[in-house]
Design brief:
The protein is mostly helical and about 140 residues long. Helix 5 runs antiparallel to helix 6. It is globular. One of its GO terms (molecular function) is RNA binding.
Length: about 140
């Protein structure tokens, strides 16, 4: 597993944990940077992803809700919401990673961590965001 793949997984874990515990994701990130929960320090790309999702939280959630076709954010599994937020950030704002790579990584996370239907749903939704990206300003 590449360092970036691990960083995405850790970002997903932090966003999922923050939502499950009802705490601010930025505060949780700062806590984990100060006192790591694992022997290895937090990958800087994990922080980039979590901070990016937080910075664009409203826009990401609005776009996910708009293009998810019949699925409100509340209706989605919590792990899918976290995967989609990370993936949407990389697709829409992450110039470091090609869109296809961001989508593929999100689908891989969904395959490993979510329902049988989730990879197809996540692929379609993030693919749609990549298509409409040029029209977003």
């Amino acid at each position: 597993m590449s360092a970036r793949t691990k960083a995405r997984k850790r970002a997903l874990d932090l966003l999922f944990e923050a939502e499950a515990r009802g705490v601010n994701a930025g505060d949780l990130l700062r806590d984990r940077v100060a006192v790591p929960a694992t022997p290895a320090p937090l990958n800087p790309y994990t922080a980039t992803l979590v901070e990016g999702v937080i910075a664009h939280w409203r826009d990401i959630n609005e776009l996910l809700a708009t293009y998810s076709q019949g699925w409100s954010l509340d209706r989605m599994p919590a792990v899918d919401r976290a995967i989609l937020r990370v993936g949407a950030f990389e697709v829409l704002y992450g110039a470091e990673v090609p869109e296809a790579v961001a989508i593929s990584e999100a689908v891989a996370l969904a395959t490993d961590l979510s329902t049988d239907e989730s990879p197809k749903f996540i692929n379609g939704l993030l693919g749609r965001l990549a298509q409409v990206k040029p029209t977003l300003a």
